[in-house]
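REVIEWER CHECKLIST
Item 1: Sequence provided? yes
Item 2: Single chain? yes
Item 3: Sequence as submitted:
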Amino acid sequence: MTQRVCFVTIGATAAFDQLLEAVLTSEFLQTLQASGYTKLVLQYGENGHSLLETFKANVVSGHADNHGIDISGFDFNKSGLGQEMSSVKAAKDRTEGVVISHAGSGSILDAMRIEVPLIVVPNTSLLHNHQVDLAEELAKQGYLIHGHLNDLSAALAESDILRKKKQTWPPQNRGADPSGRGLAGVMDDEMGFYD
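Item 4: Structure as written out by the authors:
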């Protein structure tokens, strides 16, 4: 049987239980099944273990349905998430899957470097939230899908479209810097140093 993996990461620094709850809904699991997914792997952070265990207990008792998806998880991997993200890439016994991530810049860059389809869901409960801006801009540039907690099924469908036209990261050099100022000029602008 060919495997297809959906890997979900909430990151290491802030809890994002809402994302875990969203991917464990019957609607989303049914969408995964209908799209040929066989496995859901959750990086659930410090507090997410109880959510996963409660869900599994509800499946056993008949109060929830996993829709035939093999669901597993872990709290954190000190070596990084490269192996888990790479597990969604196509191989001889595996159809390409998807990574669903919080909108932390480290997780986004890791997935973009591995060149796997990526759905980014900003954690809007964070103070001084930059995640929405980052997700919107990278989605506009064609690198990822900006997902929403209340409609991950639609984001999953969009990821199949993105898969066919995804951009590579880092972007190819498009020639000389038109400003002629290079990295130092960009840093000066960012720091507020103007000539």
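Item 5: Key structural point noted by reviewer: Residues 152-165 form the longest helix (14 residues).
Item 6: Recommendation: ____
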